[in-house]
Amino acid sequence: MNTFKSLVVGAALAVTMASSALAAGVDVNATPTGLALQGYDAVAYHTVGEPTKGDFQITSVYNEATYRFASEENKAKFDADPESYAPQYGGYCAFGAAMGFKFDGDPTVWKIVDGELFLNLAPSIQTRWESDLDNLIVQADNNWVSIEDKAPAELQQ
Q1: Which positions make up the signal peptide (predicted)?
Q2: Spatial contact of 137 and 113, defined as CB atoms under 8 Å apart
Q3: What is the Cα–Cα distance from 40 to 54, expressed in whole angstroms?
Q4: d(CA 109, CA 105)
Q5: Which of 8-12, 14-18, 29-33 bottoms out in mean pLDDT, i.e. has the lowest?
Q6: Please, where are the H alpha helices in 36-93?
Q7: What is the pTM of this model?
Q8: What pLDDT score was predicted for residue 15?
Q9: How many domains does the chain have?
């Protein structure tokens, strides 16, 4: 394992183990109470262009996780086509998925690529991910098939 990858894996593992936002399920990165995107509105990334906190009274459940929305209009858009708005890799870190791991995705460290929402663990990881974006998305897509149903801790062994 190269030095950079070792550093990323070590740092991400420490953050993941210390975080209270460990996955409630396996394929969706949610808080222990099942809240996706730490309460941010999945549709607002696409419409407003920035992370926007959702209202606890406007929610939908998708893949066993609860999504909050800033408006009824955003909820309706999500309900009509959740796959278009839900984050890729269940909201786990896109760079981590490319490396074969599941680390918490930070909903404030995001990017929309070809209409899809991607999260990353931290700004420095996002910068690394963006430096080889196309290849890393292909790599993450390929890895996701085998890691989607595994708990994050299983991938650390």
Answers
A1: 1-23
A2: yes
A3: 5
A4: 8
A5: 14-18
A6: 44-47, 72-80, 82-85
A7: 0.83
A8: 43
A9: 1
30: phi then psi, degrees, rounded to nearest 5: -130, 160
**H or E element at residue 155:** none
Number of H helices, E strands in the chain: 7, 4
Per DSSP, the three-state class of 137 is: helix
- Please name which of 99, 86, 81 lies closest in space to residue 30, comparing C-alpha atoms: 86
Quick one: which of 101, 104, 105 has its CA closest to 156?
A: 101
What is the Cα gyration radius of the chain? Answer: 15
Query: What residues make up the domain containing 34?
Result: 3-156
pLDDT tens string 60-113: 999 999 999 999 999 999 999 999 999 999 999 999 999 999 999 999 999 999
Residues 46, 55 contacting (CB under 8 angstroms): no
The span from the CA of 24 to the CA of 68, in Å, is: 16
- β-pairing verdict for 65-69 and 55-62: antiparallel
pLDDT, position 32: 82
Q: Which H helix or E strand runs over 54?
A: none
